[in-house]
Amino acid sequence: MRRSACAGRLRLWADRHHIARRRRPPRGWLESRPVSVPGPSASPRGALERARERWFRSASAYWRPELYERYFTRTPIGSLLRRRDDRIVHAALDRLLEPEHEVLEVGAGTGHYTLALARRCARVVALDAAPEMVEYLYARAAREGAANVEAAIGRLPDGIDATGPFDGVVCLGVLGYVADLGAALGALAERLRPGGWALFSLPPRTAEGRLHEAVELVGRRHVSLRSAAEAREAARRAGLGVVAEARAGLSSGGITLLLEARRRGAGEAA
Length: 270
What we know:
Number of domains: 1
Oligomer: single chain
């Protein structure tokens, strides 16, 4: 009985082995098959890039006007941050703005600074990447009688139709969401008159900046942090000479790095 069972198992093993041998591909089969090399998208880095693309939202979907205003006017942290930003921004505008100036503002949002500019200069061209923001700003300017405000859709670095030249450009709270800082600053500088001024801000490499980056990551918004030295160098390469810096936030390092710059003339050294 034992011999019979053992013989049966041996035959079963032999049959399986025979089948496996019959299914083995012929010699040279592997050599004749085309070899597919995984492309960059199949690499771990490619998979990470695809995940990033799926996670982060486009710039035009970052904020809704009502939620934006509610955060900066009705929440304790948002209203405190806005007050501290206002302090350094308005101090800079006091030095830069003249009544006859024409100003380009990129990233106008709900018009918080747009209307302040309009009350103190001749003309403001206010651009934003989000159509909802532009509609909100247009209605707000009309409601407050700011006839010298022109609102339109525009996005850095290559989505700006306003050609200028302008006496000044303002870009506040936007450059942290722009991957290519040099290209963005170059687009702003191109629209300035020689000697014209630029006022722009970005989130710095500080504890507050890193916290801001983490919070925005949860909100599916990608933020790029830069040091003051990186911002000055990017401005220099774009033809802008930084003349002043200021910081605002909840600590000395701040969450906002504000820079004032001037466009160099054709004969000026970098």
